[in-house]
Amino acid sequence: MFQPKQMSKLLIVASKQQLEPVITELYRMNIFHIDDYVEKGDDQWEGFRIGMPLKGADTTSSSLVKIRSIASAFGIGSDQLDESAKARVQELKRSIEQDLPALADEVEHLLSQRSKLEASVKEHEQKIEALKSFTDAPFPMELLNGYDSVGCIAGTVKSHPEISVPHEIWEKQLKSGLFITIAARNEDLPAVEKALLEVQLQKVTIPGENGHAPAIIADYEQKIAGIHQDIEQISVKMAEIREKHQYFLMSSEELLTADVEQAEAPLRFATTDLAFAVVGWVPTEQVTKVYENLDRVCAGKVYTTELEIEDLNDGPPVEYNNPRFSHPAELFIDLYSRPKYTEVDPTLLMAIVYPIMFGLILGDVAYGLVLLAMSFGLRSLVKGSDAGSQLLDILRNCSVASIIFGVIFSEFLGFSLPWAPLWFSRHISIGVAAGAEHHASAIPQLLVVSIWIGILHITLARIWGAQNASRMDHGHHRSLKIYANIGWILVMWGIIVLIWSKFPIILMPDLTQMPELAGGLNVATIAGAVMLVLGLVLIARENALDLMEIPTIISNVLSYTRLIAVGLSSVAIAMVTNFISIGMFINPALENLTPVGIILIIVGILIFFIGHVGNTVLGIMGGGIHPLRLHYVEFFTKFYRGGGKKYNPFGMIRRLTEQN
Amino acid sequence: MAAEAVAVEVAAAAASAAGLKAVGAGLAVGLAGVGSGLGEMGIGAAAMGAVAENKDMFGLALLFTVLPETIVIFGLVVALLLMFQ
Lengths: 660, 85
Known about the structure:
The structure holds 2 protein chains of 2 kinds. By secondary structure, chain A is an alpha+beta fold. Chain A has 17 helices and 12 strands. Chain B is 89% helix and 0% strand. The two termini of chain B are 35 Å apart. Chains A and B meet through helix 12, helix 15, helix 16 and helix 17 of A and helix 2 and helix 3 of B.
């Protein structure tokens, strides 16, 4: 809790004969995070080189490429398949050898046939497009081509051309300008073209066809329909193949991916001619498992030992070690940065505080129910995506918190529930809710509550900042940093005590009545001032430039008032929507029911829906982003460093194939 | 007569005070919003670019983009205090 999983650094050394069994076993266990071997002329690793891939890696890779190309042509993804039936590895390997080449040829053949047919459809369509201009022509198309002494020009022009040489012309009115076809003797053609250029001729090529244009077009259209039928047949065949082979394709993709990863593993190992060595990380609780399993598969011919960890901060990969409940919040931490191995992991706290903040902002039973329904309804959309289901889990937790706060605030779509708010009320006097005296809002109190949340949150952040400094820094710098964090806490609380000693504030201790000491200053004022000065000194000892950041203490704490402010704006939008739709449209129309009144009621209902849907969307955005920002900006910047390596064990979780 | 006139004047003064409060609240939210928007304009554009280059930047980009929006929250808080206290 608040700490990543403990890791141990293992060194595995064996002779080259044990290379394959060791790789297979490590891959099967799926817990060994390999530290890639890099040749950097280190004395310790003198004589070691990066290894060569195992035999057969290239043929496996080429089969894998084939399978992936077929799968992408079919658009199959492994997450669409049922995972209950697992393919047997031996059978799968046999069918990859026997069936895959034929299947690949067939699919390739069908694909090329289809693209040929599609190309010919395009060609025919282009021809039809060219012929369309001639559909009204009184002459068959063959009359425009094949003369020795006469030439034809066709195209669109802006207006009727003035041509001085003998010619024959057919023209057709278009929306903008004319479509013309002109025939003239070859020696007159230059003069004709010149005249046409003056009316901005845009030439079209005259299609070399026989017969009248409409008949030719009909003929082509028939051909296109025929080709479409052929394409349809191919698609049906492809769908049949897909249906029949998709399971085989995806399971063999999984098998071959595993094979290729194993075959290429030696590229991450250090090898000599006869032996190999690999360094990696395993969760400490599973070290003995690695020892035992490797001993078993190599019949004792392997040397495994635990190495000392030199650099705790940057060495070990980081795997979260949190209760299941906080798993979704890991998404937010990863979005920011994975914690370093030695630092405090705030996931659990965020998993608890984030939904509470969301609930404080959105606190409305109806919106909460809508979001809860969404978090279950959208599950099928994110099937197979870990981040997606984490996000929906967060949404679920947040919507439950919203419902709880909705009950506390007595809010339902901006209306009040049959009871008075159990805590401070957020009801504002807008429209229909106006005059409900027992619901009088307690906004100053709520703002103070949010400031309290801020003070505690930031104090905790500084405490963790000191803890991180004590774990991660060394020497003189370490103690300075710890004291600086204490200094920040002292300055913040000093300012708070000073304010308390001067102004009485609701829901906060009133220190104005403390016994007075010299010069009209009471005990609390002096205590606050001492804390402030002491804090400033501690901060300045670490880095005097940090004193510039002192005003952020106030702005950071006040920033937490957004929890109430954003929430109130969503309450206000809900109430205004209710007021406009019910108070201004529906109620007046109901009092005196007329045909116009019915339309007004429908408009009122529409406004009601649109307003509340919009407010729900705003609520998700506001309720989601603001707490996230409070964590990232106000909370994390005080202690969190991040930049840890992700624990990425060598192996895979098999979904479609059996473990061999 | 005089008493009535005074009463009308007092009521008018109260109404204008309430009106000015509302204007002040509007200005607080509106101007703070414009300010935040201006601030986020440049950051947002740059953040988009950074995320397009490297998806891992998303968390940091979001952080930078939302930094100036505290200002509008302060505006909103001031408006709420003006209107409802």
